[in-house]
Amino acid sequence: MAQVLLPDTQNPNPYAIAQRQFDIAADRLCLDDRLRQVLRVTKRELTVHFPVKMDDGSVEIFTGYRVQHNLGRGPAKGGVRYHPEVSLDEVRALAMWMTWKCAVLRLPFGGAKGGVVCDPKRMSRRELEGLTRRFTSEISIIIGPDSDIPAPDVNTDAQTMAWMMDTYSMHQGYSIPSVVTGKPINIGGSEGRADATGRGVMYVVQEMAREMGLALEGATVAVQGFGNVGSVAARLLHSECGCRIIAVSDHTGGVYNPHGIDPTEAYHYSRANGSLRGLPDSEPITNEELLTLQCDVLVPAALGNQITEANASRVRARIVAEGANGPTTPEADEILAENGVVVIPDILANAGGVTVSYFEWVQDKQAFFWTEEEINAKLRLLMRQSFQEVLERSRAEDVSMRTGAYLLAVSRVAEATQLRGLYP
Ligand code: NAD
Could you tell which of 228, 273, 291, 346 is best to mutate to test the pocket of ligand 1, judged by most ligand atoms within 8 Å of the CB? Predict the structure, then answer.
């Protein structure tokens, strides 16, 4: 079979991890062998190498990817990541996780992901615009409002989406807002989208805390990653649930205060200073130390492969709510389960972003927009319903929440694939 990767425990390959997670569910579902072969691999992969004019007049060649994993349940949906370590296997894994995430939430989408190998922190705004526009142009042969709809991910934001939407629209000759989600509100974005992923994390933490009889008022929380997902999750867990945020971190390291950090002040500080380093009334800790702090809730909201077999036995949180995609390796999953640490898996915990992206796409298509209250209420309903479905399935089969979520997702995608049949 093509694209089979052996797991390397020293340097875990995200695609191999995604396939192992799928295999666990496929085995349990006794999935037909042909279906397994279809769902285990990505459907379509585009690699592009493209030139961008830099500010000093030189021309640099960048490499980017857009991968679609499955289109059985609808158009492909998934973010675009700018990072020096983007790789085809990472994008493949992220695309596959998007398929399952959309299926867990019953959104009428398949899964996709994109990425460009670049270091956006060392590029000017003009260079980033040039890179975004040319990348969009290169992948315009497979994206579109009814085929594949990008959104923001690591190091991309509403401005990136505005440039993507404009570039695609220029090709067509008229505006097509629904080609991307996560846009600024003024050009067809949705109320509530900027906070949606962090808000979704808060909703599933609330549900899990209720199930466990854990009072969130005063509960201690550590958040790794202080970007779109982490900073919002920290702010909302603090302001709406009364949690005590004892540590937050970014790519430069973490800050710790057992009496609590005000996440809004930390956000303004990091915006003004470029990082959290030196936040007043806090002591520095490493990202590694943050992950093993004694706390009620740990939210990994940075990159993948953060909780591995090397540190999982030292994780002392009661709940791990995966804001990031793929932060926990399968080996770590087993160790956490043995130690009674409950993991709310990424394909459920961080699904708030794609859910409000779905709302944005619907609003763009109908050219009629909802209020933030309506958006948040719809998001809450879908997150809660999906949480309960995942919990029930995992309890019924005596498996982890991750496997429970996979069982739901894989069976939904498998059913759609079977119903549609084989073409030609
Ligand atoms: P972002 O670029 O806004 O923020 C990333 C944060 O992680 C930054 O604070 C950065 O400094 C920090 N970081 C980077 N490398 C780190 C490291 N090695 N250690 C600690 N911190 C590090 O990105 P984001 O949109 O918040 O995405 C974060 C994670 O959430 C990713 O895994 C992404 O795939 C996932 N996710 C994002 C969304 C979304 O809507 N943006 C939705 C679902 C999942």
Answer: 228
